[in-house]
Amino acid sequence: MNKRKLKESSGTDGECISQVQKMLRERLCHHRAMGKLFGIDQQYKHLLELLKQTTVCGESNSALIIGPRGSGKTALLNRVLKDLREMKQVKENLLEVHLNGLLQTNDKVALKEITRQLHLENVVGDKVFGSFAENLAFLLEALRKGNRTSSCPVLFVLDEFDLFVHHKNQTLLYNLFDISQSAQTPVTVIGLTCRQDILELLEKRVKSRFSHRRIYLMNSFAFKQYIRIFKEQLSLPAEFPDKAFAQKWNSNIQLLTEDKTVQDILQNLFHYSKDLRSLNFLLMLAVSNVTVRHPLITASDLQEASKQYRMDSKANIVHEFQKFIQRKAHCMYNFEKPVVMKAFEHLLQLELVKPIERPSVRSQREYLLMELLLDNNQIMDALQAYPNCPTDVKQWAASSLSWL
Amino acid sequence: MRVLHRPVRHGDRHRPSSARRQTHSPDFREERRQLPLPLPPSAIFFSGSVSLPVSFPDSNMAAPPSYLLPPSPPCARARRRGRDCRSKNCSFMCFCFSSGIMDTRQQSKIIYSWYGKPTNSDRKLRTLQYKGILIKSERSRKERCIQLGDFVLVEGENADQPFVAQLLDLYEDGAEQKHAVVQWFSHISEIPKNKQKLLKRRISSQEVFFDKVSGYDTDIAVETIIDSVLVIPLRLKDELPTRLKKEKIFCVKQSWDGKCFKALSPHTFSKLNEANRKEDGIPNSFNSFVPSDIISSAKKETKKAGSSATKTKNVEMEIESKHSASKSSLSKKRHSLRVANGIKNPTARKKLELNSPTRSPKSKLLEQEDIWALLDDDCDSQLLKPTAIKRKVKFTEVLSSPPKITCANDKLKSVFGTAEDQEVLSGTLRLSPYRKLEDSNEKVRSLNMEVDAIVLTGHKELGSQSPAVTPRSRRTCTQETSTRIAEQISLLNMLESKEEEDFLSSSDGSYSSSSEEEDSDVSCTPEKKTKPSRMFSTPKSSRKPSVHTPAKTPKKTPLPGTPRTPRNATPEIPRRSHAAQKPTSVLEEARLRLHVSAVPESLPCREEEFQDIYNFVESKLIDGTGGCMYISGVPGTGKTATVHEVIRCLQRATEDDDLPSFQFIEINGMKLTDPHQAYVQILELLTGQKVTATHAAVLLANLFCTPGPKRKTTVLVVDELDLLWTRKQNVMYNLFDWPTQKHSKLIILAIANTMDLPERIMMNRVSSRLGLTRMSFQPYTYKQLQQIISSRLNSVKAFEEDAIQLVSRKVAALSGDARRCLDICRRAAEICEFSSQKSTDEIVRMTHITQAIDEMFSSPYIQAIRNASLHEQIFFKAILAEFRRVGVEEATVQQVYRQHIALCRMEGMQSPTVSDILAICARLGACRLLLLESSSKYLHMRVRLNISQDDVMYALKDD
User: Fold this and answer.
1) Cβ separation A273–B872 shorter than 8 A
2) Which of A155, B288, B328, B836 lies 20 to 30 A from B103 at CA?
3) What residues in A contact B676, CB-CB < 8 Å?
4) In this predicted model, what pLDDT tens digit does every residue of B732-748 receive, in sequence order?
5) Poorest-confidence range of A73-82, B53-62, B134-143, B235-244?
């Protein structure tokens, strides 16, 4: 099969391949503005409507986008913002402030960043000076002066919203939500978080000021949709320069989706996690295998990728270092003490075993209580995968781990 | 004639013996500990030898209380004014407070003494009446006589606006306090905005109104009188003569009784006119007193002007003159100096430093060091460390020539009009004190007395010389006096600017203007370093560089400097480019009306609470007293809204003149970065000053604890009170203590969530001051919520009746939070709008409400579990199974893993690897469906559910 394809595609030039690579990689990794949204039309509409209300009518709002990691929260927001910016009434009518809980670790930094991004008048060059109190007073004053009809709406995007909750007194959140609930400059506060219990973390007066709009991204699609996403992610668009190649490629993808092995692989992945990021990762590995000599993705490519993707890291290590275990198992009779100790240290380094308590100076190393950081299954798997394993190790494993 | 001695930093001879003792008080020791350099006692007292018995009979005074706590009213008053020491205690307090807080004010002493013999005495009231008062400024040698009927400027709480008043009576009461009874005049800015419209004409800034408002206290302390002014009565149609336009002269055309303006009655008019005429008869009311011999000596010494020594002195003189300049430009400067604490005042420090070379050479070096130590210390110790500053003042006093002469000289210059003359003079004037520098204190004192005498004699001569003394008509008199004032002021300004230029050129660009330095209290770190250098680099003082220890301050100083927030930055959000869209449909209109921010026409369902708060504030307003009220209630029950509504109603009432006017300010604990910032915000809202927290606390304590004339009542709303909690609770303490002060006229409405906050977190002394006037807002019942929504929607027919009821019941059952209720309605309107794109006449029905409620209240967990991937669900099952097996709601990943594999085998699925399991575990942990330990423990990481097992079962069962 492989060979046949090779022959077929001998005519295609390397340029096409590189273009495909570029396009697909961008799509799979660089999921910024171009990322397509799958299965979250409703959320998209809701968010777009919400932001439109703010920008067009000057209505203040606050909302949280909640969903597990990789569920497309940022992609959704970016998409909405992109579409919003293209609208006529919104163009240059919206100030955006992007904050990230990992960067703005306290309110002081966050305030400075807000002031900077808003280009308020106390920004000197690119820096904001003045004390925390001054900045806060200044910002609040600035926002208080505005009103619904005349001031430019401000959009606050708080990425990793849950980290803002831990700021002292939740001052920033209180103030943002308070502004959104009072007749001041129209603002919309959008928080992005993966924590489902986020509302319980808000102080009650902050919570009361939050408008309780929550947009959930749940990855709530079935396997059929998953397959379709897979297909769409790999398909080439109609505007691809080389029409013939695109057609061939797309038909190949169509074949792949109907392939049993591919479906199995996808099903398996789907069972483990439904987020699209893992799918993209898998596809990325597969796409990377595409070369001039190997121009089309095959089922085996995917299989290989999924194997790579779902490799059990520890099992791998176990495999390589089985011999140390073997030595350790033999230590009672065969080996000298230094050798055993060396092997033991290796195990420690690889974190295959771990001392239960912190190693103290007093206790001798030989008598430390250790903890095995492996499951018996992993050892068994590793032993099976290791052909040259000495028989007595196998025996030991079989006898002492056999109860499984 | 009684003479009041105010404690003055410069007037060393008035230092009581107790002042020395005071330096050994605990406060002082504390001070010492904070000094950067250990000071030998001699260094502290090297100039303090001039201690003379004065009118401070009580020398066994207790140590002052903590500065932060508001002191008893007279002391605080002394602290503010820094010049009355009418009571025994006060004399002491004056020293410790005034020196710390506003030493600038005390650079000269102002003595208020009666003019003439008591005209009348009332045995019963034990009062003595006088017909005039002499205001004598010790340093500038200015003496003004203000008589009954004269017009005066009276210190107000705001720097820019001294009050104008006419003296009606002067008397001294049994406690030897000087009082004045005045007739107030209102400036246009004191009249409420809405009333200003009644005038229907433009009011010049010089126009005042004859004040007939009854509410103001007309009995003031004499010490608040700043200066005399002229007030000319004019007919309504008369214009103020153009040549007077620029002068410090007021005119009065109408009277103001708090409700309307009336033309002056002929009686008042003639009375005012009379008062003016009488004023002309007093020849010396504005004159400056310059000893004639000084003038003559000045002429002799002209040749010496070139010498370096004179130059040094010149600089000093200029600075001195600047000081007096700031004083003479009336209350604005007076106030600003008072506000800016002494350490910050660059001129004061410059003078200090410049003076130092005049010391005897032997001790020079040693003392330099001391000075520096002290200066450093001054830098560190701000207002709360008064002793250090006092010490500084002490030695400057002796080091420099008696300041009086310099000020006299200042006056001289104003008479002669040229700066050059003054320079020369300054040189000459300095000679006499130099000679006597080594003399004993007694001699210094006698010198001072001598100078006093000279000045006094000189005054008469000059008084007769001066051309403007006996004018023929009132007009010319006023004109001339005023021109002279203007001349003087402009001259001083010129000098000031010249001096600034000098320093600008000598130091670096960092020094923009001294006045700016003065009020920039906010960030003081760079200033601390720049100042000394500036002093060094003054080129005029040629001798200095050799004297100073150059190692101490390298010349580089003007730190690249943190450019502070641009002062003039206006906080503003850019305007929007497109106009906001008007609501097009009924639903949109409804949505806008339901937004929490929309201010409703009335506040339904809080009538009782509204009435209670209104009555409370109203009664306090009418009584002119202060008080606290504590308002509690869970979030979203309308506390702040009700209070705002009350304030709005009260403001409306004051506009209709049913109530005395008041000032409303509001702070919010959550909008402060630190509890102490509350002071800063309150002060800024009250007076517009921006100062540091500690300074603001002192100023506020002053404001509220001293009896100020014509003070309005202040209504202060403190939202989120619990955020103002500090360990010592001094912010809360102060807030609740001020209203209890007699003169504060402060009404505090404190708002917080918890009902038992005073008992729970406040100390007894704080909660006792808060008092028992409390009110708690109960959560809204469903009927109330229903009413709120209906009233907000008003006539807009967008909701079904049942739908509103459903929301209300639902929210009332949960929290009674009106905000939540409105949010749900708004969302429901949105959903409705969404679902019915075509038919526009849709109104919000039950289904929409249910959907919105579901959206807002549904637990996210169940949905999250249902939407989890298969293995994640199996993992949950495995956890449940493991929990059931062990009987403890906690398990390690390893245990769960085994269960998981078993489950997978049962279902005939491929079993996951450990890495997979750990990935699943981490994902669920990030969503907080599971609670995890830190992942370093790998398989032994313990897992717990963040939801109840039942919920998990319920979520998994349906599949």
Assistant:
1) yes
2) B288
3) none
4) 998 899 988 887 888 99
5) B53-62
Nearest CA in chain A to B913: A312
Burial of residue B459, with CB atoms counted within 10 A of its CB: 0-12 exposed, 13-18 middle, 19 or more buried = buried
Give the gap in angstroms from C-alpha A55 to the nearest C-alpha of chain B: 8
pLDDT digits (tens, 9 = 90+) for B99-128: 333 434 444 567 777 777 777 777 666 777
Closest-CA distance of chain A to residue B238, Å:
41
Distance in Å, alpha carbon of B774 to nearest chain A alpha carbon: 20
Contact between chains at A122 and B864 (C-beta distance less than 8 A): no
Instruction: Please give the mean pLDDT across all residues of chain B.
Output: 65
Instruction: Give residue A102's pLDDT.
Output: 92
Query: Using one digit for the tens of pLDDT, what is the confidence trace for B568-583?
Result: 567 777 777 666 677 7
Residue B612: what residue type?
D
pLDDT at B486: 54
If you write DSSP's letter for every residue of A59-74 in order, what string do you get? Answer: --EEEEEE--TTSSHH
B545's CB contacts (< 8 A; 6+ apart) are: B536
Q: Report how many Cβ contacts below 8 Å link chain A to chain B.
A: 238
**pLDDT tens string B854-890:** 888 887 888 888 888 888 899 999 999 999 999 988 8
Q: Is the dihedral of CA A344, A346, A352, A356 positive or negative?
A: positive
**Separation CA A71–CA B926 (nearest Å):** 13
Residues on chain B touching A204 (C-beta within 8 angstroms):
634-635, 753
For residue B526, list chain A residues with Cβ-Cβ distance below 8 A.
none
Chain B residues with beta carbon closer than 8 angstroms to that of A73: none
B589 touches chain A (CB under 8 A): no
Report d(CA A68, CA A147) in Å as an integer: 36
Q: Does B596 touch chain A (CB under 8 A)?
A: yes
CB-based burial of residue A63 (10 Å sphere; 0-12 exposed, 13-18 middle, 19+ buried)? buried
Residues of chain B positioned with their CB less than 8 A from the CB of A171: 670-671, 673
Interface of B with A in 475-534 (CB under 8 A): 522-523
**Single-letter residue type at B123:** R
The helices-and-strands tally (H runs, E runs) of chain A is 20, 9
Closest CA–CA distance from residue B75 to any residue of chain A (Å): 31
Give the pLDDT confidence score for residue A324 in this predicted structure. Answer: 54
Contact criterion met (CB < 8 Å) for B856 and A213: yes
d(CA B213, CA B206) in angstroms, rounded, equals 20
DSSP string spanning B166-204?
A: EEEEEEE-TTS-EEEEEEEEEEGGGS-HHHHGGG-S---
Contact between B569 and A120 using a beta-carbon 8 Å cutoff: yes
- Longest CA span, chain B: 121
Q: Is B902 on the interface with A (CB under 8 A)?
A: no
For residue B307, give every residue at least 6 positions away whose Cβ sits within 8 Å of its Cβ, in sequence order, or none: B427
Does residue B158 belong to the interface with chain A, where contact is any CB pair within 8 Å? no
pLDDT at B265 over 60: yes
Alpha carbon distance B539, B286 (integer Å): 37
Tokens of A39: 């299965």
Interchain CB contact of B571 with A (< 8 Å): yes
Name residues 118-157 of chain B within 8 A of A (Cβ): none
Q: Is B608 on the interface with A (CB under 8 A)?
A: no
B564 to each of A123, B173, B782, how far by Cα in Å? Answer: 10, 51, 52
Q: In sequence order, what are the residues at sequence separation of 6 or more whose Cβ sits closer than 8 angstroms to the Cβ of residue B498? A: B318, B419
Please give the share of chain B, as a percent, with pLDDT higher than 70: 52
Q: What is the DSSP string of B808-871?
A: HHHHHHHT--HHHHHHHHHHHHHHHHHHTSS-TT--B-HHHHHHHHHHHHS-HHHHHHHTS-HH
Low-confidence ranges of chain A (pLDDT < 50): 1-10, 33, 330-332, 404
